[in-house]
Amino acid sequence: MNVAGKVAIVTGGGAGIGAALATALVAAGARVVVADIDGAGALDVATRITAQHPDSAVGVGADVAGTAAIEGLIATAEQHFGPVDLYFANAGIVGAPGLDVSDSDWDLALDVNLRAHIRAAQLLVPQWVQRGEGYFVSTASAAGLLTQIGSATYSVSKHAAVGFAEWLNVTYGDQGVRVSCLCPMGVNTKLLYAGQESGEALGAAATRAVTSAGNVLEPAEVAEIVLAAIEHEQFLILPHPQVLDMYRHKGSDYDRWLKGMRRYQAALLADNH
Question: How far is CA 148 from CA 59, 66, 143, 157, in A?
Fold first, then answer.
């Protein structure tokens, strides 16, 4: 898909990867609704974009975990720009580390990291099938292919996000609906350092696990890779190519991989003392 002239919604667009995606999309000729639970952040990103590209972006404060909020974003896009062509389910949260996590924390992680994707697809995919074209981009994580040391809620919800994106691709890929799944490792955003700032040993280990596994990319670098992948309609987007090797090692000998991850976790926790 060529994004020029297309209408996109980017969730989690008030900072980080989402802000970079919105900026890159408009630079490539798209028009974008920038959505974030931090409404001021979304408005700021849209204002910076429109300063260079007038009438190309709108910022909206929205909690995209809920269906009503997503409906509102779609209506805003249609009002300002026209029918939605691309939806970037990019909003995400890390979640508390460890096993002692409340049901409400689990629900929040699943709502933001998974159900928000499902609810958006339920609203948009039927329209896209009728039109014969649409593009859904899911921001998961390398944790969705591998695992996340520290946060069970993050690891499990990101695995589920990858699974849902796969299902969408298989089920609707022959009906004009394109699906990509973004699975980066370390990206220089607040989310990367949330574990380090949690005050928990497992949380700090989670941050070090990512920062020590490969280069920490800037959001703009990731956005450039995503747009190139969309142009080629590539499902799995890996800004860190080594993730594919890690994924292959995991699948080739699961028990050996698990033992290696336990050793890695032990080393990271030892470094914290």
Answer: 32, 26, 5, 11
